[in-house]
Write a structure and sequence with these properties.
flavoprotein, 23 strands, oxidoreductase, 355 residues, 28% helix, 27% strand, alpha/beta, FAD/NAD(P)-binding domain, EC 1.6.5.-, globular, 6-stranded mixed β-sheet
């Protein structure tokens, strides 16, 4: 009996399960999924959980049930490639025949003093809950700084504005304009939304220090009652500690078939994998589709295709509160209610297929 172990219940490994269960799992294969929490989390919606506009229950999806799927809830301590086993904290080790590493990411603080100690995060459901508690309990007219104006920073800033119109919110953007790698039309639309809704945007920001009640942007000091960090990610610490070849961002270099170059039984999916695209839930799902194809061929001792299809992403969709949104889909910029409706539809479809 072959044993497939999936580390992490994120978007990539959920897609692996969706494609293998219930009818495409060979009779001689069992699966063990390891995750810290007993449900799949909709990480793309953590911004709304932290802002207090949706409940905790709305970002959770139950893992599937199957007679040959074993669920283990605990923290991974080490991936022992030499002995083909997963070392867990306070639990017995788990041996594997095939392994998919999908442990996700953590905040990257870029060596900014005080950033890790004095900022709040939305990189895990536990941290998003803690951020919600802080933001929801703040007195009126409190000052909140959000460092990083990528998709997460934009969405939490806009959602928090709707949730707490009494707060003073400042968004610090490292670029000359919001989403500088996308059409200027999107940048202007998002910037105008923030101006119209009383959110201050600081472009060309360079945060050099964070204190419990202040943010230092070069020589300028901004008093803050709370700071949320959305200014970069890095692979999970377990992955960072692995003795394998990585890229400059600490992500694991993989073969064209998504496995370690010297180990065809160990695959890497999502934020931990070195890929030519920025990490995203969409990319993890596309990658997982190909990993399942490779696994099934190897289990059947069939030859692999000479080349896997290029992974093509459909675009991005983001929200500006509950009524407005923005996106870049099929090389077209879209804004307003249509973009927000599309994002809500994508989320509904995901829950429908995985629920």
């Amino acid at each position: 009996m072959k044993h497939l172990v999936l580390l992490g219940g994120g978007y990539g490994n959920m897609r692996v399960l969706l494609r293998l269960l219930p009818n495409n799992l060979p009779e001689d294969v069992t699966i063990t999924l390891v995750d810290k929490v007993p449900y799949h989390c909709l990480k793309t919606e953590y911004y709304a959980l932290a802002a207090g506009t949706i409940s905790d229950h709305e970002v959770r999806v139950a893992f599937p049930e199957h007679s040959r799927l074993n669920l283990v809830f605990g923290a991974v301590q080490e991936i022992d490639l030499e002995n083909k086993r997963i070392v867990l904290e306070d639990q017995e080790s788990i041996p594997y025949d095939d392994l998919v590493i999908g442990l996700g990411c953590e905040d990257k603080y870029h060596n900014v003093p005080g950033a890790e100690q004095y900022t709040h995060s939305i990189q895990s459901i536990e941290k998003a809950r803690h951020t919600y508690q802080t933001l929801s309990n703040m007195p009126a007219r409190s000052k909140v700084g959000i460092v990083g104006a990528g998709l997460s920073g934009i969405e939490i800033a806009s959602e928090l504005r709707e949730s707490r119109p009494d707060l003073e919110i400042t968004l610090f953007d490292r670029g000359p304009r919001i989403l500088k790698d996308f059409p200027e039309r999107l940048s202007k639309y998002i910037h105008k939304w923030f101006v119209d809704h009383g959110v201050t945007v600081i472009n060309n920001a360079n945060i050099v220090n964070v204190e419990p009640k202040a943010i230092y942007n070069n020589e300028d000091v901004y008093e803050m009652d709370a700071t949320v960090w959305t200014a970069g990610i890095q692979p999970n610490v377990v992955v960072r500690n692995m003795n394998v070849e990585k890229d400059s961002s600490g992500r694991i270099k993989i073969s064209p078939y998504h496995n370690l170059p010297d180990d065809e039984h160990v695959y890497v999916v999502g934020d931990c994998a070195s890929l030519p695209h920025a990490p995203s839930a969409q990319l993890a799902e596309e990658q997982a589709e190909q990993i399942v194809q490779v696994l099934q061929k190897r289990w059947k001792n069939e030859p692999l295709p000479e080349k896997l299809p290029e992974m093509k992403l459909k675009g991005i969709l983001g929200s500006l509160g509950k009524k407005q949104g923005f996106g870049f889909v099929a090389d077209r910029a879209i804004t307003g209610r249509v973009a927000r409706f599309l994002k809500s539809g994508v989320l509904w479809l995901y829950k429908y297929h995985n629920g």
